[in-house]
Amino acid sequence: MDDGQFFYHPLENIEDTEDFYAAINREHLTKSLSDERPYTYWTIELYDQTNGIRGGGGLGILAADTRRVAEQMGVPFTLVTPFYPYEPHQKLENGHVVDEHIPVDYHKFGFHFVDTVNIKCCGNLCKLDVIEKKFNSTRILAITEPNFGELYSGLSGGDHRLYQEVSLGFGGYAALKLLGLKPAIMQLNEVATFFAALARLDELASNGMDFYEAVVYTRKHTLYTNHTLVQAAEAEFSYDQFERFVFPNLKSPAVRKWLADKFVNHHIKLSSVTIEIAELRSGVSKLHARVANYRDIAGNKVKFKAVTNGIDLEKWVVPEILEFYKRSEILDKFGLPTDDYIEKLEILNALKIKEFKKLGREILNQVLSTRPDQNGQILHFSDDDFIFDFKRRFVDYKRPELPFSDPKRLKSILEKRGAHYILAGRVHTGDHNMAGKLKKLLEAVGNDDYLRTHVHYIADYDEKLAFGLSAGANVAVNVPIVGLEACGTSWMKDIANLNLLISTHDGGVADASADSYLNVNGTDESEEIEALYDRMEEALDIYDNDFDLEYVVRKQLAAYLPVISGPRMLKDYLAFLFKA
């Protein structure tokens, strides 16, 4: 049975999560996963504000969603991550983005201290605290210490970043052993988690297993999930850095030699060795898996299996909308689309859409009640106010500035409906180019009397604001340069919450056809800008025609509900990892 047949196998007579678990893993999985042999998920970043961990972006949000979905499905699952003693915040001062890092105490969020583990760095023994928090079949297992610093501290190829990554890998693996856990599978999210698989290889080789058998075993039980597209952009580490931070933690001479041989001109890219240590490799959308340009040590292009990201519907969908999906049998009790979900979508009419958006508007206003815009104004929107939004990390390829290419045209579009445009997103620390673009954008907005009161930048973007905008806006703008977005999940939350999506055909959006949403295309950026403005005007018209609103919202949901579903994502991973 191939993966597609396995995934779409009908789940009949399922009464509870135990039945679901049995249906997705069958006998070969029940023997492979247990409380003592969990699915281990390694991430340098977790974004889970409920549990006191505030990350920096989509990678952390995805990690939190995956753990929650595993809990809902009853899958034995251990998420291993650092707990950074400082959480990132941003504020706007005179048009400039200013970073702040606020101390956090894990005790206040229900984590408890387990014990300490040691790693070796620069000739010293470094003590790491092991903390955990359990959630039914899942847990967050974290390593931390007072001087661990904040997320993405220092240069990407610097000593402190390497220390954090080595701590997660060797320290996190030691933490698993401390709790008596043996990973059934190790999913490495991005190359910063490579050292976890290296620690496992070293343990096997140093405990008497033949080195080549240890390599084969580690490779077969390790999944490398890549979330970026270009290997060339990755930072490098030097041999000297590995002599100080990595090699002292290896017990096996054979593993040390294996790793040393991977250096080229005394430098190493972690992606190269991660590819070598993981036989299983996945990309996070169909397009990403097809176009990601990564090569192994020999220079051969690496193939990735497509497992498109999904979201935790329980977390990100307005409760009344999610209940409607389940009550109408559009989604089953596990958050999977039913066999006839497209036909069932016919019950979703314009009246219901607008009623649900009113509920979402209440959520948005509540979030905004403590979030002033760039002018210091607290915003409150009526049910009749029309809102476009852009909410995602502020980086060049996502192009947050694109709608402001022609301020007069943007102004004329907003004036047609008295519409508002909300910008929310984090500028990565040290990204002076994007910080400058944001400042210039806000200056242009401030120089126009109309735009000043209808374009709003909300600083310190976080998951609460992300949910509020998904729930309460009308139209989401997502315009990455085609070929540079791996997946993205903000647009998923928008579609699930009945927003119209204006997007380029990139990342996970490209899992369905380009006529499934309001598509922005063109042979160059000037054509894309014109198409974006046309789609914005089209969105205004759609909301004025109930038939059009029903048609577009239903079409989006028909195309993307299987993509959006977090349970679908987990099911895809399990089918890939535990093939019969």
What would your notes on this structure say?
By secondary structure, the protein is of the alpha/beta class. It has two domains: 37-89 and 107-310 and 570-577, Glycogen Phosphorylase B (Rossmann fold); 357-564, Rossmann fold (3-Layer(aba) Sandwich), CATH 3.40.50.2000. Helices cover 42% and strands 17% of the residues. The chain has 22 helices and 19 strands. The strands form four sheets. Strands 5-6-7-2-1-8-9-12-13 form a nine-stranded mixed β-sheet, with helices on both faces. Helix 15 links the parallel strand 14 (387-391) and strand 15 (420-424). Helix 4 (159-178) packs across helix 5 (194-206) and helix 19 (490-496) packs across helix 21 (546-564). The radius of gyration is 24 Å and the shape is globular. The N and C termini lie close together (8 Å). Mean pLDDT is 92; it is low at 1-18 and 25-31.
Strand arrangement within the widest β-sheet reads: 5-6-7-2-1-8-9-12-13
CATH architecture of the largest domain: 3-Layer(aba) Sandwich
Largest sheet: 9 strands, mixed
* Shape, principal axes of CA atoms: globular
What fraction, in percent, of the residue positions are helical? 40-55%
| End-to-end Cα distance | 8 Å
Features:
single chain; 580 residues; alpha/beta; Rossmann fold; 2 domains; nine-stranded mixed sheet; globular; disordered N terminus
Short description:
With 580 residues, the protein is of the alpha/beta class. It folds into two domains: 37-89 and 107-310 and 570-577, Glycogen Phosphorylase B (Rossmann fold), CATH 3.40.50; 357-564, Glycogen Phosphorylase B (Rossmann fold, 3-Layer(aba) Sandwich).
